[in-house]
């Protein structure tokens, strides 16, 4: 036994010697690579007091990164020579190392008190100086440390798309991109546990997204991750699900840049509280975007609502409403006759391949006839919806004042059984016009008494009051006493606002997009939401 203990101690001692020797050799090697005196290191970069060594060297410029790496990946760089590095502002210590790609050059930074206060330097958007020094030249960079994840895209080629004409395929004519771009993408972020720094490097295809948002200079994008062979690549980004398809939202319609994220978080709480039906909706996280050396600003990265998220099987159908106008019954028949996936901006999103258009259109057609036109097939109206989901959608939309989300910007998923009977569930989308914001150029609706209801629950509320009214009130009380508590809603808003401030993105966003100025003043929203929730208490008490 003593022999084993001695052997263990000897092994530990030898390991300690090896580690200390390795650390010493590494330090000697690093010192050898930096042929100038320095006082300290930050992220392995020497901090220098005397910059006389730069004299006589040629100062080079150029809007590219010639060799500053983080985690083995070139840092994103804009045309003005600014490097962008993501760091978690809540972590006290600087994470990782900044390195070069060559033994013949070295990095250094001048002494700067801002290095001593990581959180403040990030929040204030401090620009550090960083030099990449060669034998007779040097590059001078500004280093901006971002407190939220950074995504950088480099375009390699563009492919124009043949969209055909309206009569052949109106869905493709309206919604397919004119051009698809291909290139490389880098995402600097933390993984699922928010502790481990991760860097994703892979191929990407992307294109401009959105119809109403296309009028803005700051564009939204759809992106797809690709592997080395150009095939779809599933990766988890910013702690969200593993997937290849993502949306980047520019959020220009929301001056505070927090409405959609707050609404997404609240819908997630509705979904978590509903054990009867899968209500999985969009999740969103913030990032800063750079495309082709151009800083694009603050974006929301969003998981799409799709068949995978909603766990649809081969018989199920997914629709998306993108307009206030519901197609007439004869319009849908026209779509069936012509083999169309779209009619008056009601879109068939799943399945991808349709062999029977009458069967695929039937759930939406009957739903509209039942709840919007007073017809429909012989089944009872309450059997055509998941009541808990329909009530959740109504309560959610009323609580967030979804002025653009009580018919338009909604997904309808039809779960179809083997007999062809469907049960419909609703999922929200595009939640920027919420919490008092309405359609129009920076219009705020002060009236807290407006009603935002999709047609299903109101119809059932009148036709089956003994079934719907008690359930509606009970569910409101249940949610109101938990995640729809006014203080809880305002807390989520405040957390998102504080994150935007502490990340340092506000000034960068407003400098890049002054025409879409971002505000951090929540006074008007807070006042509106307090009045709104008080009014809703009285409104639902009537049931």
Topology summary:
Elements: H1 2-33, E1 40-42, E2 45-48, E3 58-60, E4 68-70, E5 73-74, E6 82-86, E7 98-100, E8 106-110, H2 118-123, E9 127-133, E10 137-146, E11 150-160, H3 170-175, E12 179-190, E13 197-209, E14 220-226, E15 235-236, E16 242-243, E17 245-249, H4 259-273, E18 284-291, E19 294-302, H5 307-310, E20 317-321, H6 329-338, E21 342-343, E22 346-350, H7 357-371, H8 387-400, E23 410-416, E24 422-428, E25 437-438, E26 443-444, H9 456-463, H10 465-480, H11 486-502, H12 505-512, H13 523-541
Parallel strand pairs: 2-8, 3-10, 6-10, 11-18
Antiparallel strand pairs: 1-2, 4-5, 4-7, 8-9, 9-10, 11-12, 12-13, 13-14, 14-17, 15-16, 17-19, 18-19, 20-22, 20-23, 21-22, 23-24, 25-26
Helix pairs in contact: 4-11, 6-7, 8-10, 9-10
């Amino acid at each position: 036994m003593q022999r084993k203990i001695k052997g263990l101690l000897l092994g530990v001692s030898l390991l300690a010697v090896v580690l200390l020797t390795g650390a010493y050799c590494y330090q000697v090697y690093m010192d050898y690579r930096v042929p100038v005196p320095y006082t300290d290191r930050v992220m392995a970069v020497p901090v220098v007091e005397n910059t006389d060594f730069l004299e006589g060297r040629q100062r080079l410029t150029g809007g590219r990164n010639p060799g500053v790496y983080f985690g083995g990946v070139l840092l994103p760089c804009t045309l003005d020579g600014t490097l962008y590095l993501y760091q978690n502002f809540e972590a006290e210590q600087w994470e990782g190392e900044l390195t070069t790609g060559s033994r013949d050059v070295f990095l250094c930074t001048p002494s700067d008190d801002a290095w001593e206060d990581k959180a403040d330097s990030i929040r204030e958007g401090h620009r550090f100086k960083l030099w990449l020094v060669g034998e007779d030249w040097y590059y001078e960079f500004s280093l901006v440390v971002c407190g939220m994840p950074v995504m950088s895209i480099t375009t390699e080629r563009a492919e124009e798309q043949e969209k055909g004409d309206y009569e052949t395929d109106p869905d493709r004519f309206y919604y397919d991109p004119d051009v698809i771009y291909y290139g490389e993408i880098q995402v600097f972020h933390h993984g699922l546990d928010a502790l481990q720094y991760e860097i994703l490097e892979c191929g990407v295809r992307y294109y401009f997204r959105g119809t109403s948002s296309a009028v803005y200079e700051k564009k939204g994008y759809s992106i797809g991750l690709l592997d080395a062979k150009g095939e779809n690549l599933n990766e988890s980004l910013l702690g969200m699900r593993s997937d290849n398809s993502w949306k980047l939202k520019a959020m220009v319609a929301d001056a505070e840049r927090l409405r959609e994220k707050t609404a997404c978080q609240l819908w997630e709480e509705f979904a978590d509280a509903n054990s009867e039906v899968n209500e999985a909706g969009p999740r969103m996280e913030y990032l800063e975007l750079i495309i082709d050396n151009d800083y694009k600003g603050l974006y929301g990265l969003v998981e799409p609502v799709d068949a995978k998220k909603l766990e649809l099987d081969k018989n199920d159908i997914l629709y998306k409403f993108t307009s206030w106008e519901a197609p007439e019954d004869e319009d849908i028949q026209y779509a069936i006759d012509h083999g169309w996936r779209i009619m008056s901006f009601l879109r068939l999103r799943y399945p991808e391949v349709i062999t029977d258009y009458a069967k695929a259109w039937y759930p939406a057609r009957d739903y509209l006839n039942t709840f919007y036109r007073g017809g429909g097939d012989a089944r009872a109206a309450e059997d055509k919806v998941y009541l808990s989901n329909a009530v959740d959608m109504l309560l959610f939309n009323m609580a967030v004042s979804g002025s653009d989300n009580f018919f338009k910007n909604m997904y309808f998923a039809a779960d179809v059984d083997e007999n062809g009977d469907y049960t419909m569930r609703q999922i929200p989308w595009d939640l920027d016009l919420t919490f008092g914001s309405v359609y129009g150029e920076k219009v705020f609706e002060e009236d807290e008494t407006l009603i935002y209801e999709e047609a299903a629950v109101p119809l059932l509320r009148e036709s089956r009051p003994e079934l719907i009214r008690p359930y509606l009130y009970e569910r409101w009380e249940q949610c109101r006493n938990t995640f729809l508590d006014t203080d809880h809603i305002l807390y989520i808003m405040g957390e998102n606002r504080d994150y935007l401030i502490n990340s340092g993105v506000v000034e960068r966003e407003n400098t890049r997009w002054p025409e879409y100025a971002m505000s951090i003043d929540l006074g008007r929203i807070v006042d509106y939401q307090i009045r709104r929730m008080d009014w809703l208490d009285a409104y639902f008490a009537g049931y």
